[in-house]
Amino acid sequence: MSLMGDIKVRGLRVRFGTVEAVRGIDVTAYGGRATALLGRNGAGKSTTMRVLAGVVPPTAGTVVVDGIDVVADPLRTKRRTGYCPDVGGLVPRATPWEHLQLAARLRRLEDWEDRGRDLLERFELGDAAHRVTGGFSHGMGRRLSVVLAAFHEPPVLLLDEPFDGVDPLGVDATQQVIREAKARGAAVLVSTHLRDLAVEACEDALVLRGGSAVAGMDAAELVGEAGARAYRSLLD
Ligand SMILES: Nc1ncnc2c1ncn2[C@@H]1O[C@H](COP(=O)(O)OP(=O)(O)OP(=O)(O)O)[C@@H](O)[C@H]1O
Questions:
Q1: What is 7-92+155-235's CATH topology?
Q2: Taking the domains of the chain in order of start, what are their residue ranges?
C-alpha cells in the first residue's frame, strides 16, 4: 500500500552534456520517515534532489513522488513537494515576508499568516521579516529556505544541505520541522555531509558515490565511531 509522500525512484540517470551526474540509482522513501542522502562532493545528491523536486528532468528511469510521475507531471510534483535547494532560490530584493506571500499566492494558501509568522520566529527570522534577503548571511538564507520548503506542509519535504553553515538554534529548528513533517505522515529526504545530524534526523540512509547508490542502511548503523568508520569505508 502506498502511503502519503512515498518516493519511488528506479534506474534514475541524469546526464549534463558529457557528464553523467547520476548513473542508475534507486531510492525508496516512505511517508512518516526521513531518509538521509549521504556522499562526497559530486556524488549526485543535489542532482537527485532536483529531479525529485521536478526541477531537473531525468535522462532515464522512473521517478514517482507522492503517487505522481515527475516526468508526466512536473507541475503537480512541485505542488506536492517542499524543496530547500542547496544554493539559490531566494530573491535578493524580496523580504522573508514577501517570499511567504508569494509562496502562499502560488499555492493558493489561505489563513497562512499565523503559520508564516510562527515559522519565522522559530527560525529567529522574526526581526528580519521585513529586510531584503540580499543582505542576509549564508546561515540566515539557509534558515529561510527551510521555512519556505516546510511552509505549506507538503507530503514530501526535500532538504538539500539544510544544516550547512547554520547555527545550533537554527539546527534545532530544522530538526523540529523534520520531526513535525514525519509526524503528519510526510516523507522527508535530507541531503547532508553532516553524518551526526543526518543520524539524528533520519531513520534511513542511502550513500551515493560517483552517481551510484553504494549502500542503503538504517541510519542507526552510522552512529558514533563505528558508524564513522563504516561510512568512510563506503566513500573510498
Ligand atoms: N548543471 C550541471 N551541468 C553540468 N554538470 C553538472 C550539473 N549539475 C551537476 N553536475 C555534475 O554532476 C555531478 C554530481 O553533482 P551534484 O551536485 O549532484 O553532487 P552532490 O553530491 O550534491 O555534491 P556536493 O556535495 O558537492 O553538493 C558533479 O560532477 C557535478 O559537477
A1: Rossmann fold (3.40.50)
A2: 7-92+155-235
Q: pLDDT at residue 18 above 70?
A: yes
Q: Find out whether 5 and 66 touch, Cβ atoms under 8 Å.
A: yes
- What would the mean pLDDT of 194-220 be, rounded to a whole number? 93
Q: What is the 180 CA–ligand 1 centroid distance (Å)?
A: 30
* pLDDT the model gives residue 1: 45
**Which residue in 168, 211, 175 sits closest to 190, CA to CA?**
175
CA–centroid distance, residue 214 to ligand 1 (Å): 17
Test site for ligand 1: of 46, 52, 83, 142, most ligand atoms within 8 A of the Cβ: 46
ipTM: 0.95
Ligand 1 centroid from CA 43, angstroms = 7
Q: How far apart are CA 196 and CA 49, in angstroms?
A: 20
